[in-house]
Amino acid sequence: MLSRFTSASLGLIAALGLSACDTGSASPEPREIHTETGMLPAAQGIWRNADYGWILEIDETGITRWQDTPAGCYRTAQDGPTLMSQVEYRFFTPAGPDRAQFEYLPGDGHTIFRRLSTLPEHCGATDLTDRAGTLAVFASVFAQHYAFFERRGVDWDVQIEQARTGLADVDTDAGFFALLSAMIEPLGDSHTKLIAEFDGERHRAQYGFGETLPMIHEGMGETPWLIGIIDGLMTDVLDPGARHILNDRVIVGTIDGRIGYIQIFTMGGFDDTLEPGTPEWAAGELAALNAMLDEALTGFAGMDGVILDLSNNRGGYDAVTRTIASHFTDEAFDGYSVRTDWNADPDITYRIEPSGGVRYTGPVAVLTSDVTVSAGEITTLMMRQLPNVTQAGQTTRGAFSTPLAKPLPNGWYVELANEIFADADGTVYEGVGLEPTWPITVFDPADPVASHAQAVRDVAARMMENAGD
Predict the structure, then answer these.
(1) CA-CA 20 to 30 A from 270: which of 50, 59, 67, 416?
(2) What is the SS3 assignment for 303?
(3) Are the C-beta atoms of residues 397 and 376 closer than 8 Å to each other?
(4) Could you report the per-residue pLDDT of 416-467, keeping only the tens digit for each?
(5) Residues β-bridged to residue 251
(6) Distance (Å, rounded) from C-alpha 46 to C-alpha 73?
(7) 221-229 — which CB contacts under 8 Å span 24+ positions?
(8) Residue 335: φ, ψ to 5°
(9) Cα separations in angstroms, 219 against 10, 214, 232, 396
């Protein structure tokens, strides 16, 4: 049942989240780049996006991606160790003279590239594959794209200087991996990671998982923990008839016949019958989600409130977050904005329109913890702006950005947080998380299973008490 909670499945739905980096009046009809007769002629050429450091070289044979960094420009393949590093653009929309929008899925991206007449001369001009070259690229990529050094209290220049000094003593891949890992560890950012293969093994450096998950991994283990949480809900908290559905990603039920309950573990992965990453997959995910919400919210009509439990939500597909929010409002509202430059206006602001399906606008409590991350936090960010919604539980992790995937010239791979998410008022919660209005311990180290069940009961009791006022 829980074996499907894999890093691969979570990585794919994260990879297919939004990527925003410029504005433009694009046509509403994206065209497929790969056609039955070859590559779309209008898409062929050299295209550059400075905000993400990507150059696309497209000809009749396919897409070649170049990493354009201050330390040099080098060619890479889309076959990295995570699904985020493997996904490639599928759709193309002209956005003005020598400008075009490229998307992974139609209508879910705003990445604008500008056409170049030729490939820049510096691309491929320098061999960057040795340790000095890779360190230079690694350092410059973060300096150019990472958005949260100040937020996370890290002086990147100091990190670079220490690494350059330490490089002289490095004579193994393991030592070099440790050197690069030490540069990113102080960031404490779970959306930033380094992955490498050497000595016949894969190695991963990733930090900033909060307190709960490291505690679980060092103690009872994640699978027993998840099973315990689910069993506790189904046996001791929810009324008879509660269901664990949508490929084990969702639990739906009621509490004392008065409170509706929905727990969502990932923002996607609801339908495993379709090919991941395709438009059909995206449509199927949203169709499954809408059907579930329509049915659940119909059953919750007239109840004292609804608990949307995101306390164990690991993120996923951003379109899912917007669809969820649309079922809890009768009025359109600005959900969130995204940009890559602190000093610039948002590249895109997502306007949430009320769902055409069933909507619930009674009292809602969104339950969160430090496990709540990424698209789970984006959902919380939107929901708590609604007048009928209260956030309960613990502060979220504070990692919103869709990671920017960067293969390194030595064949290793890095992801980093480069997108700045903000609520409708422009407030950014990266690095600090979303603090609840109703503080409740969700995952108590003394008993991280029973404490979750008690937290749900406490929220339900408070909502029922409020309804009686």
Answers:
(1) 416
(2) coil
(3) no
(4) 999 999 999 999 999 999 999 999 999 999 999 999 999 999 999 999 999 9
(5) 244, 263
(6) 14
(7) 222/5, 223/2, 223/3, 225/448, 225/449, 226/2, 226/5, 226/312, 227/1, 227/2, 228/449, 229/312, 229/449, 229/452, 229/453
(8) -80, -55
(9) 23, 8, 19, 22
d(CA 340, CA 416): 12
Q: Let me know if 457 is exposed, middle or buried by CB neighbors in 10 A (0-12, 13-18, 19+).
A: middle
Q: d(Cα 122, Cα 111) in Å, to the nearest integer?
A: 23
CB 54 within 8 A of CB 22: no
Q: Is 423 helix (H, G, I), strand (E, B) or coil?
A: coil
H or E element that contains 384: none
H runs (alpha helix) in 327-439? 375-383
Answer whether 0.85 is exceeded by the pTM: yes
Residues in Cβ contact with 85 at an 8 Å cutoff, skipping those fewer than 6 apart: 78, 79, 405, 407, 413, 415
Could you read off the pLDDT of 353-385 as tens digits, one per residue?
999 999 999 999 999 999 999 999 999 999 999
Strand 99-103 relative to strand 389-393, pairing: unpaired
Q: Where are the domains positioned within the chain?
A: 2-116, 131-206, 212-402+426-468
Q: Which two tokens stand for residue 235?
A: 């046996």
Considering only CA atoms, which of 308, 324, 306 is closest in space to residue 316? 324
The position carrying tokens 């400075």 is 50
Q: Class assignment of domain 212-402+426-468? A: alpha beta
